[in-house]
Amino acid sequence: MSKKDRKVLQFPRRPHPKADYQRVKSLYTISEIRQLFGLSERMIRRWAEQGLIQSVGASDADEPQYDFQVLTQLRRARELKSQGLTLKQVEAELQGQMNLFKTAAGRVTHILTPFEEALVMHERGDQKAVELYKEAISSGDNVADAYCNLGILELEAGGAPKALDCFTFALKVDPRHVEAHYNLANLYYDAGNLKLAKLHYETARELEPSFSPLYYNLALVHYELKDLPSATVSLRRYRELSPEDDKESLDELIGWLEKACALEQGSSGFRV
After folding, report:
1. What is the dihedral of CA 107, 113, 119, 125, to 10 degrees?
2. According to the 3-state scheme, what is the secondary structure of the chain?
3. Which residues pair with residue 63 across a beta bridge?
4. Domain locations in the chain?
5. Nearest partner of 30 among 77, 70, 76, 2, judged by Cα
6. Could you give the angle at the alpha carbon of 116 between the alpha carbons of 115 and 119, nearest 5°?
7. Which of 126, 139, 184, 199 is most buried, with most CB under 10 Å away?
8. CATH says 25-110 is which class?
9. Per-residue pLDDT for 251 more than 60?
10. How far apart are CA 147 and CA 163, in angstroms?
11. pTM given for the model
């Protein structure tokens, strides 16, 4: 949804999700990591300086970039945080894993795996990516991620049922795969199945409470289900997690929802 569209004070009759389907990429910027995991730029740079995550150079805008392997470390950090570990304990665990990785990966050259090749082909728009993702799945190479990205390619080719299968298989491999839950939610939303969309958005939220786009989309689902208080709460949370977005438009939309809630509750002026 463009900033121009968001100037409308109320959600359109059939609003679109805030963000597109989420695929695993070959490179990630700090802003993308922040959006996915809710980490501050300061924390990301600190972990890079400590060697907990590895930078692979800078983009045209001189912003550091990190290859997809960073997801393994950050997903592990997410899991450790959910277990109640302190930041210091999380960093110690990540450091230990990084040391093991460096020992195991002590080699001069690096041959691309099928999944890594698929990422390159995918980003080039080359259809060879489909077969390479299938090869990655067969060889046990980043299987959940491969299913997730394959599902997006199937969807782009018009195969919604095949995409559904791929996202579902990704969750069978890794039930905590946030991107697969989010993509399933978007797929169900686009199909008009709001209850299943809500289920998967909420599951993604439980797994990664700082993944900002899902709060906007969850607000849309609550709105269409006529649950205006919940829509307002979700939209407020999205505003908190998205400092780069258009605050004025979001405040107008939140204000409209609050007024709608008050009208719905009668003269009590109920506010969420």
Report:
1. 120
2. CCHHHHCCCCCCCCCCCCCCCCCCCCEEEHHHHHHHHCCCHHHHHHHHHCCCCCEEEECCCCCEEEECCHHHHHHHHHHHHHCCCCHHHHHHHHHHHHHHHHHHCCCCCCCCCHHHHHHHHHHHCCCHHHHHHHHHHHCCCCHHHHHHHHHHHHHHCCCHHHHHHHHHHHHHHCCCCHHHHHHHHHHHHHCCCHHHHHHHHHHHHHHCCCCCHHHHHHHHHHHHCCCHHHHHHHHHHHHHHCCCCCHHHHHHHHHHHHHHHHHHCHHHCCCC
3. none
4. 25-110
5. 70
6. 90
7. 184
8. mainly alpha
9. yes
10. 9
11. 0.83
Strand partners, 67: 27
Token pair for 257: 């929802």
CA distance 166 to 156: 13
Q: 119, 24 in Cβ contact below 8 A?
A: yes
Q: What is the pLDDT of residues 252-268, one digit of tens each?
A: 888 888 888 888 776 45
Q: Which two tokens stand for residue 43?
A: 């924390």
